[in-house]
Amino acid sequence: MIDAHCHVDFKEFNKTREEVMGRAQQKLKAIINSGASLGGNRRTLQMARDYPEFLYPSLGFHPHYAPKADRSVIEEVLKEIKLNLHHAVALGETGLDFHDLKSQEDRNKQEKLFRTFLDMASQEEMPLIVHARDAEKKALEMSEGYEGIPKIIFHCYGGDLETAQLIMDGGHLISLSTLVCFSTHHQELARELPLSHLLTETDSPYLSPFKGQRNEPAFVEETVKTIANMKSMDVKDVAAVTEKNARQVFRI
Q1: Mean pLDDT over all residues of the chain?
Q2: In the chain, count of helices (H) and strands (E)?
Q3: Residues 126-179: tens digit of each pLDDT
Q4: Residue 174: what pLDDT?
Q5: Residue 182, class by beta-carbon neighbours within 10 Å (0-12 exposed, 13-18 middle, 19+ buried)?
Q6: Cα(18)–Cα(16) distance, rounded to whole angstroms?
Q7: What structural domains and CATH numbers belong to the chain?
Q8: CA dihedral 105, 74, 149, 205 (to 10 degrees)
Q9: pTM over 0.90
Q10: Phi and psi (nearest 5°) for 66?
Q11: Which long-range contacts (CB under 8 A, 24 or more apart) does 73-77 make?
């Protein structure tokens, strides 16, 4: 099994990071730790050095920060990403999050930054991890025409089946998180979407499948189990296919 998206660099893990990583190494073959800020990218790169051939970094800037970030900070993020591309297995997370946006100006700032990452991923021919919340169709529309991007991963996907089909028709992937363990909508996605286009993730420390407990990469097993249950498949088969998908897209 592979956790295709998590944030073990976040402060929620500061006191127990070593134990969390130990449990992950016992159960999983690899994790993709997604940088979401300037500091997050730096911490992710350091963790990749601490856990070689197990923790693989993706480097990005979360759309939630885009409307509020000073331009100089964004420029520093982009500069450092370009300097460390050879260490990364993907760009992102990046994308669009329209859930709580109040103004068109804020949307424009998110879209501008997303376009910058689309350009970079196309030029560098790197996979792109996309966060799209209440903006799945818009993110897909913006990504069309970038032939240099080998694959786009719509992480923690929560959109509708129609948009999911369009994503897959474009040759891209959908990552289902531990939300699938308790969300009927995500369980429908797990049941209906072909395993050939799915990845599994936790998005930890968020979205724990266990009430009152912080999420962690080892819990991606619960995602795999639930998908297997929804598809009436053997857990080992789901784990094998989704792991193969992750290895292919991230080239690990």
Answers
A1: 97
A2: 9, 8
A3: 999 999 999 999 999 999 999 999 999 999 999 999 999 999 999 999 999 999
A4: 98
A5: middle
A6: 6
A7: 2-250 (3.20.20.140)
A8: -90
A9: yes
A10: -60, -45
A11: 73/38, 74/113, 76/38, 77/37, 77/38, 77/41
